[in-house]
Amino acid sequence: MEVPCAKDFHWQTLAPLPSPRVYCSLAEAGGQIFAIGGCDDAGTPMSSFEMFSPETNQWSSLAPMPSARAGVAVAALGKRIMVVGGVGENQTPLKVVDVYNIDEGKWKKRSSLREPAMGISVTVRDCRVYAAGGMGSDLRPHCFLQQYDMLKDIWVHFAPMPTPRYGATSYLRGTKIYVLGGRQSKYAVGAFEVFDIETRSWTKFPNIPNKRAYSRFVLSEGSLYSLSGLRQGGTYRRPKFTKTVDIFDMEQGGWMKTENSSFLRNRRADFVAGAINGRVVVAGGLGNQPSVLDTAEMFHPGKSRWESISPMPTPRCACASIVLKNRLYAIGGVNQGLSSAVEVLSLTET
Question: Which superfamily does CATH assign the domain made up of 6-110+208-347 to?
Fold first, then answer.
């Protein structure tokens, strides 16, 4: 498979976030990027709501959210942006659901979740939002799968997820929702489960071979990549940053045997990752070094190995990121203090 050369990808520094923050959520609608909530440098949730236009490289402040929150789940439904749960100003999970109408520039309260939750994982299909897992007020992980019907403004409960968790990653592929990883209290979960929307049933897939915290999952060209992260210490083991890569073949339905040659060049956790132009990219994060990382690398599927690319202009971890039109945006995050940096990686047009 022909993929572009690593040396042809470059970072560009864009207009900074109006206010530096961490744990903000991103959504894309109509080619614009929306930054929703997050925490300020005192760790207090914010009600900020801003829109970035890639065409003009400008941020505009929009009507703030009705309630300040961080770590929300977001779903874009045409000209509407739905904000679900998250952590409120008293640092406990919320059950509030608000929808922003882009044309009207207004927020509207919608039907709440049955129970407050943060770290919910959402996917959208046919104007219906599927919300999986989350962590409740009692700090317990949820196994709920709830479907929101926009037209009727109601939440419907489906068969619960076999493994309760929060902070999972989910992907929609056809009529199936793939849910990977996540956490139970402080510990990483290795479960991989798939919900079939048509039969409304769950299937357990083989667990992620190497369970780690602060890892990232990327779907690219029919393969699911489980990337790097922190191997948590057991009774006798210290926590350890890894460069492990596990690859799941969506067609074959199994984890492939990965050689050490397909491991990352740098150990890292809590980094930015995405797929652009058929290549999986990782950048920044935390590693064994005393300061945050700026290094970036991309995977060559043909050669099954990682290649270094130009570093992120601003080293940081805990960034929000989004891929739009084969461009990977890294927004906010932490670099000693909170960062307002906005940077994009893309193929240089020749």
Answer: Galactose oxidase/kelch, beta-propeller (2.130.10.80)
**R_g of the chain computed on alpha carbons:** 19
Q: Which two tokens stand for residue 153?
A: 């403004």
Q: Which backbone phi and psi does 293 adopt, to 5 degrees?
A: -90, 150
Chain segment 147-163, per-residue pLDDT in tens: 999 889 999 999 999 99
Mean pLDDT calculated for residue range 101-115? 96
Task: Report how far residue 247's alpha carbon sits from residue 226's, in angstroms, rounded to the nearest whole number.
Answer: 6
> For residues 280 and 299, is the Cβ–Cβ distance under 8 A?
yes
Q: How many angstroms separate the CA atoms of 348 and 312, rounded?
A: 15
- The pLDDT tens digits of the residues spanning 30-63 come to 999 999 999 999 999 999 999 999 999 999 999 9
Cα first-last separation, the chain: 21
Give, for 106, the enclosing helix (H) or strand (E).
strand 106-110
DSSP letters of 135-168? B-TTSPBP--EEEEETTTTEEEE-SPPSS--BS-
Helix/strand/coil for 319:
coil
Q: How many residues belong to the chain?
A: 350
State residue 111 phi and psi, 5-degree precision. -55, 130
DSSP β-bridge partners for residue 279:
276
What are the φ/ψ torsions at residue 260 (nearest 5 degrees)? -60, -25
Torsional sign, CA 307, 308, 313, 316: positive
